[in-house]
Amino acid sequence: MRTQVAIIGAGPAGMFLAHLLARDGIDAIVLERHDREYVEGRVRAGVLEQVTVDLLHGLGLADRLDEQGLVHGGTNLSLDGELFHIDMEGLTDGRTVTVYGQQEVMHDLFEAADERGVRIVWNAREVTIEGADGTAPTVRWREQTGDQYEVRCDFVVGCDGQHGVSRKSIPASVQREFERIYPFGWLGILAEVPPVEDELIYANHERGFALASMRSPTRSRYYIQCDIDEKLEDWSDERFWDELCLRLGPEVGARVVRGPSFEKSIAPLRSFVAEPMRWNRLFLAGDAAHIVPPTGAKGMNLAVSDVAILAEAFVEHYTENSDAGIDNYSSRALARVWKAVRFSWWFTSITHRYPDMDGFDRRMQMAELEYIRGSLPAQRTLAENYVGLPLE
Ligand SMILES: Cc1cc2nc3c(=O)[nH]c(=O)nc-3n(C[C@H](O)[C@H](O)[C@H](O)COP(=O)(O)OP(=O)(O)OC[C@H]3O[C@@H](n4cnc5c(N)ncnc54)[C@H](O)[C@@H]3O)c2cc1C
């Protein structure tokens, strides 16, 4: 088998890339370790930046997004129960974010795959990459039948998340890794209840961070900061709702509609970047190259902007005979990645309770939030990062 671009992983990065390449007539194949049900079923991101929304429109895949997505022109911060609003739309010349679950995005990308000639191999196990430092890489995999297959290609793109095979295929001597582990996690639930507020609330409370988010007008997504070694079984729904309401403060807490959760999980928080994002004919995109804590909702959006940059580079290579985009991919993508890493690290640092925080640190957080509340330039800085920096 032969193709132009072999893509490993059918998450947001892999599927956006496959659609962008198919649109421009570049042949590609996507190799995914799991089946469609598994990938589509993962409850993850829910806030799309303008760049991601624009790309879905550009691909003609935004019908359901336009119908069901909740466009948010602002967001709320809360300090010890006192709420204040940031008018993102007014502060960023009309830019917004859209609440639309990652599961819905994946559904739209998978549904359109066949008719657009996007080839996906499900349950591709034991994927290996060979020859990425030469001119003709080969990717091999085993299917459920046990049979082994291979595809020869011009380029390999690792869109296989944090634990995939692609980043590990790059020699350690050419890669540098940067990491920050946060000393807490997020305990999150999904419940079929109306959200407490039309827009998100990021709450800093002396008991810890809380986030009031949603997936639709009838489905809420709530998170509270928890210890890293917290056990899910210790968190009954009742205990979760009580703690959430405390952290959102008496006014908001009293308005929270409670109900049984149908998903509950704990996610660790981490910032991670691997540089460079290219080694010869092997490229990394999305979580394969970087991770951000979910504060600020950047992970999936970064995956999408990486592959938007990369798709442009491949189009230049195949249609204009120029490798300038390919050669610039890593530095161009990393420039955007580091800004998002900074924003999510900063937003985490002003909203969460750290175990070693003393009175001084707490006063610094309060002063920073008070400053944002009273300063339009500070709000503008937050807003332009939150809605997503433009693709440069
Ligand atoms: C609780 C939570 C909340 C989040 N909230 C947000 C949010 O609000 N906004 C936001 O932007 N981001 C959010 N994120 C982050 C976002 O979900 C990820 O950044 C995004 O999924 C990254 O996409 P990706 O395609 O790079 O990687 P992934 O989604 O991890 O996809 C990688 C794919 O590769 C496959 N794979 C792995 N290894 C192999 C292999 N060896 N061979 C073949 N296939 C392989 C995997 O099965 C997977 O399907 C959240 C994440 C979590 C966990």
TrEMBL record:
Root EC class: oxidoreductase
Coiled coil feature spans: none
Key words of the record: Monooxygenase, Oxidoreductase
InterPro entries xrefs: FAD-bd, FAD/NAD-bd_sf, HB_mOase, PheA/TfdB_FAD_monoxygenase
Keyword Protein biosynthesis: no
Domain FAD-binding: 2-344
E.C. no: 1.14.13.2
Domain of life, source organism: Bacteria
Protein name: 4-hydroxybenzoate 3-monooxygenase
